[in-house]
Amino acid sequence: MAQMDRADGHRYFEGLAVAHVLGGLDDSEGRVFRAHLLDCADCRARVGELRAIAHDLADVERDEHRVRAAQVIETKRRESDDADDDLEEAPPATRVSRFTVLGGLLFLVGLSLWNFTLHGEMTQLETDNRNLVRAGVVRETGTSWRSAITDASVQGVVKDDGTDFVVSVDGLDPEQRYGLYVKDESGTTAYRFYFGPSEEGRLYRLFALPDDADRLLISDPEDTGDSPAVPGSEPSGDTVFEASRP
Question: Is the pLDDT of residue 245 over 70?
């Protein structure tokens, strides 16, 4: 979970990178982003890529200025022969060239944003994959919790290794929303997670193990008129699965 939170937080800084290169950050955001750059090699690399794009755009704009200057010289050279025709044709050429530069700029900015989006999605996929691998390790080597299944159609396993725990539960209703709650020894909710099962009615997920975790339960919340019912901050309705830490 901590890795997923870090990935979500990092997307915020990736979104600031374009504004940083274009000079669009305010003083507060600028200070935060510059401080982040000191610790993040990925963002430094992204900023370098964006600056390279900005440099290329500046080269394009300089080339365009040179083309327009050449057009002006050519227009003046022809003025003695056909000044009126040249003056009528020059503005459309200028407008076309400006649209070309603007279109190129929008394309490159769009490409850069797409690159950031793709990078964020790849980072999330890598995080999910690492969590699945970690879940498999905990499932194979962790200590089993004592299960007390309260719904005959539901079967599940909980294992932990002292740092993380993995929950694997089958037989849930894919149309329902459930609440997963971890209680400590005093009965206080140390962690909660709201979820909808997969299409197969399964939950398989890795979590960070809360301090003093003692008991886990999954509840099908009471019907409050919503479809499906939304879990609350504390268990309500029917408890469909329960397990106690040994």
Answer: yes
Specify the domain boundaries for CATH 2.60.40 within the chain. Answer: 143-244
- The pair of structure tokens assigned to 43 is 């963002």
Q: What is the pTM of this model?
A: 0.52
Cα-flanking dihedrals φ and ψ of residue 159, to 5°?
-135, 150
Q: Residue 177 and residue 236: Cα distance in Å, rounded? A: 12
Residues 6+ apart with CB under 8 A from 48: none
Amino acid at 167: V
Q: Encoding tokens for residue 95?
A: 């407008």
Assign 171 to helix, strand or coil: coil
Tell which residue, 189, 190, 195, 207, has the closest CA to residue 240: 195
**Span 157-210, pLDDT tens digits:** 999 999 999 999 999 999 999 999 999 999 999 999 999 999 999 999 999 999
**Other residues' Cβ atoms within 10 Å of the Cβ of residue 240:** 22
H-only helix segments in 188-231: none
The verdict on domain 143-244 having CATH code 1.10.150 is no
Complete DSSP assignment for 166-178? EEEEES--TTS-E
Q: What whole-number distance in Å separates Cα of residue 216 and Cα of residue 198? A: 20
Strand, helix or coil at 232?
coil
Which single residue is written with the structure tokens 């603007």? Answer: 102
**Helices 2-22 and 41-141, axial angle in degrees (round to 10):** 170
Nearest-angstrom CA–CA distance, 21 and 87: 38
Q: Which tokens hold the place of 194?
A: 């709201």
